[in-house]
Structures are given as structure tokens and as C-alpha cells.
Specification:
The complex is a heterotrimer of chains A (650), B (168) and C (489). Chain A is an all-alpha fold. Chain A is built from 24 helices and two strands. Helices cover 73% and strands 2% of the residues of chain A. Chain B has one domain: NADH-ubiquinone/plastoquinone oxidoreductase chain 6, subunit NuoJ (Four Helix Bundle (Hemerythrin (Met), subunit A), Up-down Bundle), CATH 1.20.120. Chain B has seven helices and no strands. Chain C is mainly alpha-helical and 489 residues long. Chain C contains 21 helices and two strands. A two-stranded antiparallel sheet of chain C has the order 1-2. The longest helix of chain C is centred in the middle third of the chain and has 32 residues. Classes of the chains: A mainly alpha (650), B mainly alpha (168), C mainly alpha (489). Chains in contact: A-B, A-C, B-C. At the A-C interface, helix 5, helix 6, helix 23 and helix 24 of A face helix 7, helix 9, helix 10, helix 13 and helix 18 of C.
């Protein structure tokens, strides 16, 4: 079977599923829905795998299928493009999408509106696949708005919750601001290249040898910036990130699918898709990298002190997306996509794990009321343990490879800088801290509530295990250059799109890797000092007393040092190290509260100021709309006066 | 010279009549001043050698329409309406605006008159006046607007009947 | 002079066929109203609908002969035909969506349909006018009929207020238009659009540009009133709120589309050569219109009033296309007006059904829980609202997209940016309706709500279908608009 020519069918299967659900779903039994909806995604997954395998065997590694000349003057068709970049995306969307669908059959089992939920979910997958398979900006935008709409519907799914409705609305409106910029960017691209098709735009830009706009800000820079502003809306970058944490009001599978693995990465995808344009605009790239880096550290610092398990993950997602933009901003597009790929696994797993915890705790989301869940929910605990190791960047797991590569590129690339590297490294430290804080508060220590937690059903734990395997293994697709074993498949695969890496400065890769691993370990250690000590968990004793302190003492005693020296060191441990840990904790809280202060006062303040302005702007209108015909006529006359005055004065 | 005297006389009649129409309190007085204003316009037509229009203006507007006006005014008790609260407390602002707009128009006119390229005056009509020319204009060149205007009037009549009809 | 000179040719009549059909059917309806009994009343609506269908056929026939007719009074080209058919379709949708309303308010009568046909005839005259006199007469036919329709339920105080305001302010604005026509005649010696253009193009005979610009400004006042462009939009919220809901739907689409047709034709054909003179105030008005419409809509609680402000805002977007004064700008305006007509009528049709007798339920909060009680209608209203927001795969998106593309092509960068930001603001108030429909518990207004009548069902489904078709296959209409836009000059 020729899967390559059938790529246009990939988005259609979920669409059929959505149509059936929304039209006839009410009459279908839940058991049918449970098979049908994940089934459509699975068929798409099979087709995607087939198409990608055939693409790998093809010569040019790019395949375009145009089904219908939609708008000939714009060169925007109902056409689909499969190349290494979109192939990564469709595999993520269908593969992880399928797992999350399966999980949702268990998670949503007790909710009303089962069919409606799956209808929207399938519709979302349809739009997401349209977005990543589109061969032109306009069709991409169709998918772009479609996923936004579905996300709005799904966030507001619990429509008896007022906060859910508000969160959906906020998401939609913040995204509209980004979309406005995206439309401008799209129009500018059309006026530059006379086409909206990716291949033609890229060819045009390459063929006309536009000089890179290094010195002066030009039209290409503006275009790229507009596209990037569009991306900040969808991918929740500063300052348009505000909707994502609120979007956690939606059901957890939605958070996993839309707000972690797929939709929010659309902005990264779009920037990478337009890499030919971005390459020519170093100043815009600088902005992309700066915003990305800033968002990464900023969101991570807020994540340090959140107590809602889903909000920690939400800020973590914003932060990781910042990492991806940081990579794209320094010109390392394939690394951005690589991190997108690995992140999809471990972040989806973390969300689903969190969902499993919430499910097991009967809806409790506050981590202060959890603790000691390890023995009640072993599968959830171990899978999340793997994901947390992965996101912290522990060698051998997926997150390590991609994050390490990003940091190396930021350090070594021509567009990168040492300052951004420090930002990235600090973020890595914070990440591992807040993730382990989450783990300790949730699974370790003693239980702090009377809810009788229980492990989730197989439909939920199954996907967790598959994702855990993924989080552990997919990183090996592209390992650092000095690694003796492992493959470079991912890098080579994307070279067909982004071109091979240009020889930058020599990177001391071993050193950088050691530094990032050290940062990860430091984060874990601080978290364990703070959170395991407070609750005197078993791991606290095991890990701290035995691994570090005891060994140091043994070492000292074995070497025959004086007892006094040991006491000095003991005092050092009590005062300096503890003080340092406390200090670090204090610093973290400080930074975090500054960020939160910004979030509540400046951002919310801006929102409030906007609504105030809106109310204020109503007054002049109300002043004019008196309802008296005479005043209306007066307004007319004043208008005429102004128009004539314009002529008189000119 | 004489033309100019007549022109300014008629123009003054038209404007004075118009101003007094909208400033008089009594509806009957207003209507009568309107007649004066329309007479002035009729005079202007005559000056332009448009005898037919002059006659039509007198017969239709002053003879027909204005008499109907006066009938209506006298049948309906308008004095009662005059006593009701009027929402014209912004009249001075409105007047100011209107004056400024007028000044602006005058200024623009003054600035542009020099380069004004008005079409040449029509040739003097043959004996028997310009009635025939009007007929050609109205029934050949402007036949369609002429007929379409009947639809306009029909719509207006239907409308006024609907507005006046008492519904059961 | 021989009599034959006075008799128009057969082709002339064919070019004027839609207007003739509408007038004749309108008069026949009034006769039947007088002689027929109470039982025949529903038939009059059918007759009016048939008349409109016949007029659509007539427009196609007229396009077949094409060209100017009646001594250059009318011009039948693709542009005219596009707008003729558009207003006729608007008329059809108005008729099907008003039957239930008229029965409910016990006001079913022939005059309603007759006046509607007259109004549409006036709009057809506007669409095909090639002469300022025809523009004026068409505008007045359309307006006078719609003044009456706005106050059709004459025992309803809101209707009275609406009609009176519309009438007084409309006459006031028309006076400016007529004064502008007089100036144009004085300056160029002609009221024929092509002739005015020719005079303006010839350097030796071209009149003073300051005067000509002022004349254009005077005419702009008249048109701006009809399309509800700032600062001449103040009447629209009061009038649309007070008028019967189906009439508001009609008034905010039909006369508006026709007014934009003459606006485009006069300003691009006749005043095309002095575009630099009128571009600044159309530009300013476009910005003011978008801002006033969108920001005032944010605080509205009455759905009809909200839709009125939204209609102002949409006029602002079309003005952006007018400011571009290019062929793609014209095509974009044509497409947008068509897309806008369907979504606006569709939304008003839902309001017509929902408001119940005496228009009791017209508040945003009354919609609470509609998604649960009447999922189908709620879904349709959602489509209209999404299109008004401008979400892809609806007509509204492509309308906006083409308008901003045209603006950017004409280097109107700020206008584009302000327009797009405005459309982001607009999402807020439309979304509020969707939130209320789907995310609030049903209230008193959605309890015991009756079924949608057959006529309204046709109107709602038809509009939704058209909105989606324009969004998914925009080329169908856009190609025709693009070809017709070239003929304007």
C-alpha cells in the first residue's frame, strides 16, 4: 500500500470519529465509544508509521500531496506535506494522542458527556494533524485556529465550573492576540514571496539571495517577528503565557494531550517550519532566544513554590517550551524538535501520572494534602519516577539528551551566548528541584489526608507504562558526539530539512555535560534536603545519612583524622550546609515570589487594567448615546465640521 | 445690474423665510414663512429663465402642498405639542457648530472659486420657453429616474397609511 | 421630435428587469391584501418569496444583456449583479425568518411584504445606478421603506422610537448627500459617474481639488450614515434595538450592502482620480468605526444592541477595503459583505426565535443553557458567532483575511494592524455569548422554549450553510467578485 500518497487520509480518520461522536454519540453506548475513538487515532498512527517508513526509503525525503486547489491566487491548497519535520510531528500527535485517548477512556469513565468529550478530542486531533501536515501557511492557520477552538471547548468541558469557562475564554482571547500577529506575518510572507506554500516560499527566499538582515531591521525581520509573536500565543511564551496555567482547569487528559504534548508545541513547529526565513533575520532570532530563555527561567521560578500538582506541571511546560525556543533562537532547529519530541513523552507521562494521582485521591490536587502515595499507587509512582528523572536530565533518560544538546548548542552556536547558557543551566537546576519537590510531596513521607488512595485501572496505567518506556529510551536516538554507544538517527533525519550543522566554535562537550548533570543532581539534593527533612521520610534517612554524610564521616575516620576534625565537619554540616540549603531554599522562594508578584500584579493587573479600560471606554460612548435625536444630529454636525476642518487646515 | 438686484432680493427672501420658518413658535407662522421662502426660490427660477419650473413651483408647492400643510396644522392641535418638554438644551453648541461648518464651506468656496470651471450657461431658449427642453430631459434622458421616483412616492404613501391606520 | 426617441429599447427593459419584477409583485401583493381574506395572508409571503426568486432570475437575464441602459442611467455589470443578487437573497432570508414573528405579534399583513419588496427594489436600483440622480432615488426608496419597516408594529413604543430616529437622522444625512450631488454637478457639469470621472481625469477641465474633495466629503456623510460608519453611526444601536428583530436583520445587511455598493461605485469610478483627497477621511472613519463598534459592544447586555455595535464594527472592516481602493480591495469588500450578511441574518434569526412574543428575552444572560436545551440552534448560533469572530473555515475569516491583504497591498500598514487588534478584541464579546450558552445552567428564558418554526429553520440552516460554504470554498464567490471588481471603472 502506498502510504505516502494517502497522507491526506491521516487527519480524516479522527474527523470521522469526531463527526460520529458529535452527531450520533448520544445514542452510542460508552463501550462503543471506548473502542471507536482511540481506534480512529490508532488507524491514523498506523498510516503515519507506514508513511514515515516509506518516506525514509524515498530519495528526496519530501512528499507533497495536493488534493484540491483551494485558493489558487494565494497558492494555498488543501495540500499536505510530509517531510522529516512533519513526520516527527505526526508520530508524536498520533502515537501519544492514541495513548492519551486510551487513558482518557479510564479517566473520564465516571464523567457525564463522555461522547462529547471524545468528539472534541478527536476533532482536536484532526486539526492538529491538519496543522502539522499542511503544505502552506493558510491551511496551517486553519489547523492553528481549530486546535485553539477545541482547546477552548475542552478546557471549558466542566461547564458547571465557572473558573473553567473563564479559563477557556482567557485562552481563546490571549491566542487571538497572537493570531493577529500571525495573520500579519502570513500576509507579509505573501507580499514578499507571492505564495503561501512552504516549498515555494523557501525556494523564493533562497533563490533571491536576500541578504541576511544583520545590520538593519528590515521587512524579513518584521515578518519573522510577527510569526514569532503568533507562536508566543500558542506556545505560551512570555508575555502571552498567562493562559496556560489557567488552562489546567480542563480534564487532565486534555492537559496532557493539548497543553503539554501537542498543541502548545505548534509554535515551535511553526518557527522551525519557517527556519529559512528566520535564518536570514539574526535580530529576530536574538529575540526568539531571549524570550525563550527568559520564559524558561521565569516559569521555572514560579513552579518552585506551586502547591497544585497540575500547576507545577503547567509552569514546567511553559519553561520547557522556553527551552525549545531557546534552541530555535540559536539556530539549532533540530535540537528544538528533538526536545519537543522527548518532552512530549515525559511531560505527557507526568500529566497522566498526576491525573492518576488525582483520580486515586478522588479529585484532590493540592500536594500539601498528599504524601506517602508510593505504597498505594506503585505503578503511578514508578512511571512518574522515570519521567521525573528524565525531565531533570539524569543521564540515560530522554530529557538528558535533548536538554544537554540544547545547552551545548546555546553555548557553542554563533547565535548563542554564555549568558543564555547560564540561564539555561540555572533553569535545569530549578527544574530538577521543583520536579523532585513534587515527587517527595506526593509519593514520599507520610500521608497527610484521610482519603483512601487507590491505584488506577489498567486503561490508565497501561499508557503510563508505555510512555515510561518511551521517556527512558527515545533519547538514545541522538546521543552526544562523545558517547561511545547510541545513534544519531534523529539529527541525521532532520538534516534533510534544516541542513547539516554548520561548524561552530569547538564545544567542550564533556565539560558542559558534566555541568548539566551536576545541576540536575544539585537540584535533587536540595529538594531532598528541604522536603524529606521536613517530613522525615524514609528516603531522607537512606539518601542523606547513608549516601553522603556517613560516607564522608567514614572516609574521614578511616583516614584517621582527629575526632575533633570530625566534629568540626559535623558543625560544618549542621551550620554551613544546612544554612546553604536553607539559603538556597530562601533564595528560591524569593525569586519565585518576585515572579508570582509579577504574575498577580503586573499581568493580572494588566488584564484588570484592560477590563477597566474597556469599562472606561464605555463612558464616552454612553455620553454620546443619550438617546436624543438632537444629540445624534449634533454628533453628525461635529463630524462634518471635523472633516471640513481637515480640508481647511491642509 | 438689474439682474443682480433681483437675485439678491430673491435670495434674501429665500433665506429670511427659511430662518424664520424654523425659529417661529407658532406652526402657522412657520408655514407662512415657508411660503415666502419658496416664493423666493420661484423668483430665482424665473431669473434663470426657467419659466416652467417657476410656474410649477408656484402651483404645486405654494398652491398645493402648502395649503395642505396649513390644513393639517389647523386640524391637529399643535399648540399642545409646543408646550411639552423640548430637548433642545444644546442649541447653542449646535448653532456654534453649524456656524463653523458654514464658515468652513465659505472658506473653501472662497479658496476655490477662482478655479471654478462652471459649465457655460445654456443657450437662450427658442420662442415658447424651455418647456419642451424639460420634456425631452424628463421623458427621454431622465425617464428612468422619473419613473423610479413614482415608486418612491408609492412607498411613502403606503408608509404613511400604515403609520396612520388604527389597528384593530 | 419623433416619438420613437422617447421609447426605451427592449434591452433597456431587460437590464432593469429585477426592479420591474419587484415593483409589480409588490403592487400585486397590496391588491391581494385588499381583496383577499384573512385566510389568504400566508400566501402573500409565498408570493413575495416567489417575486424575489423571479427577480434573481431577472438579474441573471439582465447580466446576459449587460451594459448601460436608459440613457446611461443604469449600468448592468458583474458588480451590479453581485449586489442585486445579494440583496435579493437577503430579502428571501428576511421573509422566511419573519413569518413566525409576524404571526406571533399578530401583524401579518401584505404591506410588510410589499414594503420589503419596494425597499429591495430601491437597493437594486442603487446597485446598478450609473448616475448620481439614480443613486439618490434608489437610496431614498430603500430608506423610506425601511423607515416604515422599523416602526412596523406601530403600537410598540420601541418600534416608534426606532422608526422616528431612523427617519429624522436619515433625512438629515440624505440632505448632505444631496448637497454633495449639487456640488459635484456644479463642479463638473454632470451627474453621470463616467462623465464625472472623465472630467476629473482631463487636466484642463479638472475643477479645484479642494472643492471637489469637499463635495466628496459631503457625499461621504450620506453614505457613511447608511453604512453606519463613525461618526455617523450613533443612530444604529437605538434603531436596531428598537426595530422588530427580522427587520433589524434586514436593515443591518440589505441597505448596508447596497450603500456600500454605491459608495464603492461612486468613490472608485467617479472620484477615483481624486482618491488622495478622500482617502484620509475614509481612513480615519474606518479606524473610528472599528474602535467604536468593538469597544462599545464589550459592555452591552442586550443581544440586539450588541449585534448593532458588531454591525458597526464590521462596517469598519469593509471601510478598510474601501480605503485600499484597489481591485482586490473591492473584491474583498464584496466578499465580506456577502459573508457578513449571512452571519448577521443567521444570528438575528436565532434572536427572532428566542425573544418570544413582545421580544421579552433579548438579554445575553437569557441565553443561559441554550446549548443544553436546544443543541442544534445553539450550534448554529455558535457557527455565526465564530464567523463574526473570524475563525477559519467560516466566511468571516476569509472576508477579514482578504480585506487585510488588500489593505497591506495598498501599504495601509497601520490600518491593518489596528484592524487585526480590533478583531482580537471582538472575540471577547462574541465569546461571551458562547460561554453563556454552553457553560451556564439553563434559566427561566430557556425553560419551556418552543420549537423553531419551519421558516426560521430554513433561514438559520441556510445562513449557516452559506457561512460554512463561504469559509470552506471561498473561491466560488471570490472568483466572481474578483472578475466583477475589475469592471467597476
Amino acid at each position: 500500500m502506498n502510504f505516502l500518497d494517502s497522507i491526506w487520509l491521516i487527519p480524516l480518520f479522527p474527523l470521522v470519529g469526531a463527526a460520529v461522536m458529535l452527531l450520533f454519540g448520544r445514542r452510542l453506548a460508552n463501550s462503543v465509544i471506548r473502542i471507536l475513538c482511540p481506534g480512529t487515532i490508532f488507524v491514523s498512527f498506523i498510516f503515519s508509521v507506514g508513511a514515515v517508513m516509506q518516506l525514509a526509503g524515498s530519495e528526496h525525503k519530501v512528499h507533497e500531496v495536493i488534493k484540491y486547489l483551494w485558493m489558487p491566487p494565494l497558492h494555498a491548497d488543501w495540500g499536505f506535506l510530509l517531510d522529516p519535520l512533519s513526520s516527527v510531528m505526526i508520530l508524536v500527535v498520533t502515537g501519544i494522542g492514541f495513548l492519551i485517548h486510551v487513558y482518557a477512556t479510564g479517566y473520564m469513565a465516571h464523567e457525564g458527556g463522555f461522547y462529547r468529550f471524545f468528539g472534541y478530542l478527536n476533532l482536536f486531533v484532526f486539526f492538529m494533524l491538519t496543522l502539522v501536515l499542511a503544505n502552506n501557511y493558510l491551511l496551517l492557520f486553519v489547523g492553528w485556529e481549530g486546535v485553539g477552538l477545541c482547546s477552548y471547548l475542552l478546557i471549558g468541558f466542566y461547564y458547571h465550573k465557572k473558573s473553567a469557562g473563564d479559563a477557556g475564554k482567557k485562552a481563546f482571547i490571549v491566542n487571538r492576540i497572537g493570531d493577529a500577529a500571525f495573520i500579519v506575518g502570513m500576509l507579509l510572507i505573501f507580499s514578499i514571496a507571492g505564495s503561501l506554500r512552504f516549498t515555494e516560499v523557501n525556494e523564493f527566499i533562497e533563490a533571491h539571495h536576500f541578504a541576511a538582515e544583520t545590520a538593519a531591521w528590515g521587512i524579513l525581520s518584521t515578518t519573522a517577528l510577527m510569526l514569532f509573536i503568533g507562536a508566543t500565543g500558542k506556545s505560551a511564551q512570555f508575555p502571552l503565557y498567562v493562559w496556560l496555567p489557567d488552562a489546567m482547569e480542563g480534564p487532565t487528559p486534555v492537559s496532557a494531550l493539548i497543553h503539554a504534548a501537542t498543541m502548545v508545541t505548534a509554535g515551535v513547529y511553526m518557527v522551525c517550519r519557517s527556519h529559512v526565513l528566520f535564518e536570514l533575520t539574526p535580530m529576530t532570532l536574538q529575540i526568539v532566544a531571549t524570550i525563550g530563555g527568559f520564559t524558561a527561567i521565569f516559569a521555572a521560578s514560579i513552579g518552585l513554590v506551586q502547591n497544585d500538582i497540575k500547576r507545577v506541571l503547567a509552569y514546567s511546560t511553559v519553561s520547557q517550551l522556553g527551552y525549545m525556543f531557546l534552541a530555535a533562537g540559536v539556530g539549532a532547529y533540530w535540537v528544538a524538535v528533538f526536545h519537543l519530541f522527548t518532552h512530549a513523552f515525559f511531560k505527557a507521562l507526568l500529566f497522566l501520572g498526576a491525573g492518576s494521582v488525582i483520580h486515586g485521591m478522588n479529585g484532590e490536587q493540592d500536594m500539601r494534602h498528599m504524601g506517602g502515595l508510593k505504597k498505594y499507587m506503585p505503578v503511578t509512582h514508578w512511571t512518574m519516577f522515570i519521567a521525573t528523572l528524565a525531565i531533570s536530565g539524569i543521564p540515560g533518560l530522554a530529557g538528558f539528551f535533548s536538554k544537554d544538546e540544547i545547552l551545548a548548542q546555546v553555548y557553542g552556536s554563533a547565535h548563542g551566548s554564555k549568558a543564555l547558557y547560564v540561564v539555561g543551566l540555572t533553569t535545569a537546576l530549578m527544574t530538577s528541584f521543583y520536579m523532585w519537590r513534587l515527587m517527595y510531596m506526593t509519593f514520599y513521607g507520610t500521608a497527610r489526608s484521610h482519603v483512601h488512595a487507590h491505584e488506577s485501572p489498567l486503561s490508565m496505567t497501561g499508557p503510563l507504562m508505555v510512555l515510561a518506556a518511551g521517556s527512558a529510551l527515545v533519547g538514545w536516538l541522538s546521543v552526544p558526539k562523545f558517547f561511545p554507544i547510541g545513534a544519531h538517527t534523529f539529527e541525521h533525519w532532520l538534516e534533510h530539512v534544516f541542513g547539516s550543522e554548520k561548524g561552530g566554535a569547538e564545544i567542550p562537550e564533556v565539560l558542559l555535560t558534566s555541568l548539566s548533570v551536576a545541576a540536575a543532581l544539585l537540584g535533587i539534593w536540595i529538594a531532598s534536603r528541604i522536603y524529606l527533612k521536613v517530613w522525615e521520610g524514609p528516603l531522607y534517612k537512606a539518601m542523606l545519612n547513608k549516601w553522603y554524610v556517613d560516607e564522608i564521616y567514614d572516609f574521614l575516620f578511616v583516614n584517621g583524622l582527629a575526632k575533633g576534625g570530625g566534629e568540626v565537619l559535623g558543625a560544618f554540616d549542621r551550620n554551613v550546609i544546612n544554612g546553604g540549603v536553607d539559603g538556597a531554599g530562601w533564595l528560591a522562594r524569593m525569586v519565585s515570589s518576585v515572579s508570582i508578584w509579577w504574575d498577580t500584579w503586573i499581568v493580572d493587573g494588566a488584564v484588570r487594567a484592560t477590563s477597566f479600560t474597556v469599562k472606561l471606554s464605555g463612558y464616552p460612548v454612553r455620553l454620546l448615546q443619550t438617546g436624543h435625536v438632537q444629540s445624534y444630529a449634533l454628533v453628525f454636525i461635529v463630524g462634518v465640521l471635523a472633516m471640513f476642518g481637515f480640508y481647511v487646515l491642509r | 445690474m438689474l439682474d443682480a438686484v433681483f437675485f439678491y432680493t430673491f435670495a434674501l427672501m429665500t433665506l429670511t423665510g427659511a430662518v424664520l420658518t424654523i425659529t417661529r413658535k407658532s406652526a402657522v407662522h412657520s408655514a407662512i414663512w415657508l411660503i415666502v421662502s419658496l416664493l423666493g426660490v420661484a423668483g430665482l427660477y424665473l431669473l434663470q429663465q426657467a419659466e416652467f419650473l417657476f410656474a410649477v413651483q408656484i402651483v404645486l408647492y405654494i398652491g398645493g402642498i402648502m395649503v395642505l400643510f396649513l390644513f393639517v396644522i389647523m386640524l391637529v392641535n399643535l399648540d399642545e405639542a409646543a408646550k411639552q418638554r423640548q430637548f433642545n438644551n444644546q442649541r447653542w453648541i449646535a448653532l456654534g457648530c453649524a456656524v463653523i461648518v458654514g464658515a468652513e464651506i465659505l472658506y473653501v468656496l472662497a479658496k476655490g472659486t477662482a478655479s471654478l470651471s462652471l459649465p457655460a450657461p445654456a443657450a437662450a431658449p427658442a420662442a415658447g420657453g424651455n418647456t419642451e427642453q424639460i420634456a425631452v430631459s424628463l421623458f427621454r434622458d431622465y425617464l428612468l429616474p422619473f419613473e423610479a421616483a413614482s415608486l418612491l412616492l408609492l412607498a411613502a404613501i403606503v408608509g404613511s397609511v400604515i403609520m396612520a391606520k388604527r389597528r384593530a | 421630435m419623433p416619438l420613437a426617441n422617447f421609447i426605451p429599447t427592449a434591452d433597456d427593459y431587460l437590464r432593469y428587469l429585477p426592479e420591474i419584477i419587484l415593483t409589480v409583485v409588490g403592487v400585486v401583493i397590496m391588491f391581494l391584501e385588499a381583496v383577499g381574506g384573512e385566510r389568504r395572508k400566508p400566501a402573500l409571503g409565498w408570493l413575495a418569496g416567489a417575486g424575489l426568486l423571479a427577480a434573481i432570475w431577472g438579474s441573471v437575464v439582465a447580466l446576459g444583456v449587460g451594459g448601460t441602459g436608459f440613457q446611461n442611467m443604469v449600468i448592468v455589470d458583474g458588480f451590479a449583479t453581485f449586489f442585486r443578487i445579494l440583496v435579493l437573497v437577503i430579502g428571501l432570508l428576511t421573509i422566511v425568518s419573519s413569518t413566525q414573528y409576524l404571526d406571533r405579534e399578530k401583524a401579518n399583513a401584505g404591506e410588510f411584504h410589499a414594503l420589503l419588496l419596494f425597499s429591495i427594489a430601491g437597493q437594486c436600483v442603487m446597485a446598478s445606478a450609473n448616475e448620481l440622480i439614480m443613486v439618490f432615488i434608489g437610496l431614498e426608496i430603500s430608506s423610506i421603506a425601511s423607515y416604515i419597516l422599523a416602526g412596523y408594529l406601530r403600537d410598540d413604543r420601541r418600534n416608534n422610537e426606532s422608526a422616528l430616529k431612523y427617519f429624522l437622522l436619515g433625512s438629515f444625512a440624505t440632505a448632505f448627500l444631496l448637497y454633495g450631488v449639487a456640488w459635484v454637478y456644479g463642479l463638473t457639469g454632470s451627474t453621470n459617474l463616467a462623465e464625472v470621472r472623465r472630467v476629473l481625469m482631463t487636466p484642463e477641465s479638472a475643477p479645484n481639488l479642494v472643492l471637489m474633495g469637499t463635495a466628496a466629503a459631503l457625499m461621504f456623510v450620506g453614505f457613511a450614515f447608511k453604512v453606519s460608519a463613525a461618526p455617523f453611526q450613533v443612530w444604529a444601536p437605538d434603531v436596531y434595538q428598537g426595530a422588530p428583530a427580522p427587520v433589524s436583520a434586514f436593515m443591518s445587511t440589505g441597505p448596508k450592502a447596497a450603500a456600500f455598493a454605491v459608495f464603492l461605485r461612486v468613490f472608485i469610478t467617479a472620484f477615483g482620480p481624486i482618491a488622495t483627497r478622500w482617502e484620509p477621511f475614509v481612513w480615519g472613519s474606518a479606524i473610528a468605526t472599528m474602535i467604536v463598534g468593538n469597544f462599545a459592544a464589550l459592555t452591552q447586555t442586550n443581544i440586539k444592541r450588541l449585534l448593532a455595535y458588531s454591525s458597526i464594527a464590521h462596517a469598519g472592516y469593509v471601510l478598510v477595503a474601501v480605503t485600499a481602493h484597489s481591485e482586490i480591495g473591492t473584491a474583498a469588500a464584496m466578499f465580506y459583505l456577502a459573508a457578513y450578511a449571512f452571519m448577521q441574518i443567521g444570528a438575528f434569526a436565532v434572536v427572532t426565535w428566542f425573544s418570544r412574543q413582545g421580544e421579552k428575552f433579548v438579554n445575553v444572560d437569557d441565553l443561559a443553557g441554550l446549548g443544553e436545551r436546544q443543541p442544534m440552534v445553539a450550534a448554529m448560533l455558535t457557527i455565526f458567532l465564530l464567523s463574526l469572530i473570524g475563525v477559519p473555515l467560516t466566511g468571516g475569516f476569509f472576508g477579514k483575511f482578504y480585506i487585510f491583504r488588500a489593505a497591506l497591498d495598498s501599504n495601509l500598514v497601520w490600518l491593518t494592524v489596528i484592524g487585526l487588534l480590533n478583531s482580537a478584541v471582538a472575540a471577547y464579546y462574541y465569546l461571551r455569548l458562547i460561554v453563556v450558552m454552553y457553560m451556564k445552567e439553563p434559566g427561566a428564558a430557556t425553560e419551556n422554549i418552543g420549537p423553531v418554526s419551519a421558516g426560521l429553520r430554513v433561514a438559520i440552516l441556510g445562513s449557516a450553510l452559506a457561512t460554512l460554504v463561504l469559509g470552506i470554498f471561498p473561491s466560488l464567490v471570490l472568483d466572481f467578485a474578483g472578475r466583477s471588481a475589475a469592471l467597476v471603472k
